[in-house]
Design a protein that fits this description.
CATH architecture of the largest domain: 2-Layer Sandwich
CATH superfamily of the largest domain: Endonuclease Chain A
Shape: globular
Strand content: 15-25%
Radius of gyration: 21 Å
Helix content: 25-40%
Distance between the termini: 41 Å
Number of helices: 11
CATH topology of the largest domain: Endonuclease, Chain A
Length: about 400
């Protein structure tokens, strides 16, 4: 194990994640809930601590005003403070419903064990829909408050796994937006078989409408380019494999849309092909942390939009899994991800590799006078103020 090898000269220096400002002084249940009521809270792991998610679940489990907790669990791990919080919530008499994906690769055994333990504690455990792996990352807390019932939702690009949260780069938000709360309720009803909901207010849900909604947004960007307006797409994903999406991105390039693709793993699209993909760049970042977040940026004629979620541009994600992609609606968060995250990825000249037209990756080397930019180091040292109002 990495931790057991005492060769500190070969290891990265220790890094302590930040506690986001909204949660820094949260000591009581009302502090957490009041912070989320005031504004959506954005977390960018591992730069922001995943302990905020754990603390929120523990607080919810112990808060007498919380009536119910609903959660999806994909890659849980062997030691799970998330599951511990759900068990405590059930023991305290709250209604707890958990969807456990038993076919999460490499975690099948531990997930089965957790599912049994949750069932024994009285938790309502479901295993998803036949033929569809549930890959979405969502938790919902239902709370009785003075003005009625309120739903607090956590949405993320990564798993509810404390260990991987320290080495995987992911993004999550807390919100009590009513439309998102209603979408979350409908989604859990869909997952538990109590609903055949097809339409959602703000969520893009695979296999129901995710492909159609992403297609529509890409086509909108193509239309802007065709009208002579600036058009720009930035997609950060783990993989691009789906043939229909690849053809659509080629069409965007041919229409004059600037397409920047940050792809950690497999990419079946070839950039730089004459009269096909001359406006497309494919960049892969390999560094200390595993790039895992999925970000979909649309310039939209200056009315910039960003969506986050669990889905890659793969046929399995779009057609054969339950995935959730959700909008980032706080303008400060949109600017943060555009100016302080995506822009840094595109400028990285230390850890990035650029794909050529032949499908081969080449290291990006900075010229002697250029500023050296390592996106992960920059994000580790970045002030958290940039994403707070």
């Amino acid at each position: 194990m990495y931790e057991n090898v005492e060769r500190y000269d070969l290891k990265y220096p220790p890094y302590k994640p930040r506690i986001v400002g909204q949660f820094k002084d949260a000591a009581a249940a009302e502090d957490f809930f009041a912070a989320i009521r005031q504004e959506n809270v954005l977390l960018h792991h591992p730069y922001d601590s995943f302990n905020s998610v754990i603390d929120f679940l523990n607080t919810s489990a112990r808060d007498p005003q919380v009536l119910a907790i609903k959660q999806t669990l994909y890659r849980v791990g062997r030691n799970s403070p998330v599951v511990d919080a759900l068990l405590e919530a059930s023991e305290r008499g709250k209604q707890v419903a958990v969807l456990v994906e038993l076919k999460a690769r490499f975690d099948e055994e531990s997930n089965i064990g957790w599912a049994r333990k949750l069932e024994q504690a009285g938790v309502h455990v479901v295993y998803g829909l036949v033929g569809l792996k549930t890959h979405s990352k969502i938790g919902m807390v239902v709370r009785q408050e003075a003005d009625g019932i309120r739903r607090y939702v956590h949405l993320a690009t990564g798993n509810y796994n404390l260990v991987t949260s320290s080495v995987y780069e992911d993004i999550g938000i807390f919100t009590c937006d009513e439309a998102i709360g209603a979408d979350a309720t409908d989604l859990f009803n869909f997952l538990t078989g109590y609903s055949t909901q097809q339409d959602y207010r703000k969520f893009f849900v695979a296999p129901l409408n995710l492909r159609q909604r992403l297609t529509s947004l890409i086509q909108r960007e193509i239309e802007h380019a065709q009208h002579g307006d600036k058009a720009h797409l930035i997609f950060k994903v783990n993989a691009i494999v789906d043939p229909e999406m690849i053809v659509l991105l080629y069409e965007a390039s041919q229409a004059g849309v600037q397409v920047d693709l940050l792809v950690r793993g497999i990419c079946c699209l070839r950039p730089g092909l004459k009269e096909a993909s001359e406006n497309i760049r494919v960049i892969s970042i390999v560094g200390r942390y595993l790039e895992h977040s999925r970000i979909f940026y649309f310039f939209n004629n200056g009315e910039e939009e960003i969506y986050l979620g669990s889905a890659d541009l793969m046929t399995r994600n779009l057609n054969h899994r339950v995935e959730v992609v959700f909008p980032l609606e706080n303008s400060q968060h949109v600017r943060y991800l555009r100016d302080h995250v995506l822009d840094l990825y595109l400028k990285d000249n230390e850890r990035s590799r650029l794909m050529n037209a032949g499908g081969e990756y080449q290291r990006v080397h900075s010229d002697s006078g250029d500023e050296r930019i390592d996106v992960q180091k920059r994000l580790m040292n970045q002030s958290p103020k940039s994403k707070s109002p």
